[in-house]
Amino acid sequence: MRALAALSRFVGNTFALWVLLFAVLAFFAPAPFLPATGWIVTLLGLIMFGMGLTLKGSDFTEVARRPLWVALGVGAQFLIMPALAWLLCQLLGLPPEIAVGVILVGCCPGGTASNVITWFSRGDVALSVSITAVTTLLAPLATPALIWLLASAWLPVNFAALFTSIVQIVLLPIALGLIARRLLGARVRHVVEILPLVSVVSIVIIVAAVVAASQAKIAESGLLIMAVVILHNSLGLGIGYFAARLFGLPLAQRKTLSIEVGMQNSGLGAALASAHFSPLAAVPSALFSVWHNLSGALLATFYRRLGEKPDA
């Protein structure tokens, strides 16, 4: 068990490299990864179950202790990235399926990877976990509503179907994880130690499956989608930081808000796009998963060196 936990930590720390490696493999040799497309929703549910196992009552104490900071983070998450996605689609005149995919990933809640990057950045981990948890719990209503509002101009959007999907692949597994944590008690610690391995393997399979299913379209439009993903993520990270600065948050919380805004639950985006739109609509989420882990690691290196200066 100790060796498995060590392997889990290693894989978790090298997450971005595994995602990048298998995305490249799936692009050049898609056939072995195509059967995994039928497992995307199940794998995301497994990740959300793991999130439920790790959630504790203390993760929500920040909501009561610092409600304005949490509310700012949640509001920024559901305002900045969706607005940026819509604006980029308008300015660049993206094709409908790609536009919907970009908007979809922009409307997703924060991902658990943001908590890890916040820790590496010497940010406020408790605040990060609270914002991620609250945005995830609000996602069944907020995400379909935002997608319907912003993406309907490109393709028909079924709010009820999206709501049902997010309840099934986000809320239900998290609830089961919470129940399992209560039943397992202290024994859950052994399970939690290998969760990074399970999560990385699941995300890697999801990304590889999406890339394999859309290999021809990526070859045709991949550079355009990658450029939009990089712009979207970079602007989200930057605007998130300066929004926190505008509201007078200290440096650690500015780092946290930047990361929470810029890093999305791209696995959820890929699952929803695959289930409700098309494989091509899932490509922005897959490429976002590759890129935001790389950009997050680079940003964490910079943030760790960012001192507490009055003009920081």
From TrEMBL:
Subcellular location per the Swiss-Prot or TrEMBL entry: Membrane
Entry membrane topology: Multi-pass membrane protein
Keyword flag Magnesium: no
Keywords: Membrane, Transmembrane, Transmembrane helix
Bilayer-spanning residue ranges: 12-30, 36-55, 67-86, 98-120, 127-151, 157-179, 191-211, 223-244
InterPro entries (alphabetical): BilAc:Na_symport/Acr3 (IPR002657), Bilac:Na_transpt (IPR004710), Na+/solute_symporter_sf (IPR038770)
Chief place where the protein resides: membrane
GO cellular component: membrane
Superkingdom of origin organism: Bacteria
Pfam families: SBF
Descriptive protein name: Bile acid:sodium symporter family protein
